[in-house]
Every structure is written in structure tokens, then in C-alpha cells.
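no rush on this but wanted to send it before i forget. theres a chain ive been looking at and ive put its sequence and its fold in C-alpha cell form underneath. please have a look and point out which stretches look like helix strand or loop to you. thanks a lot i owe you, the record is right below:
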Amino acid sequence: MSMRIEAHVLLLIGDQAEITTAHRDASDPERVPVDRLVEETGIPRERLAGAKVTAVVGDDGELVRFERR
């Protein structure tokens, strides 16, 4: 069973985005490919930094998908 959590795109570093959630703060952000976020959320690259999104967490605790909020 998957669950949804709030996530925040802190910043972009090259082709990676740093994402924070309730489980990963700014001292240890999740890194996600920018192209994946653009494809899954529809948010253009230039608007990703600072965006609030919903992360879908799989049974294994991995962030399996992102959705626009």
C-alpha cells in the first residue's frame, strides 16, 4: 500500500533536484533526476526550485512518483 506525503524541491544541482520531506530534511535531502520531476509533475524546470509537490511512497519506503499539488 502506498502513501502520499508532502515534499519540497529545495534546489537544482545540474540534472538532480534536492527534495525534502517529513522524513528527509535539508541536512540529508533526497536526490531525484530533474527530468523525472518535470515528466511526472508537469512543472517546467525553471519553476521547480521552491515547488511544493506530493511524493508517493511505495511499500519499501522509496519515493516512487511525484505529483503536482
User: Anything to note?
Assistant: The longest strand covers residues 3-13.
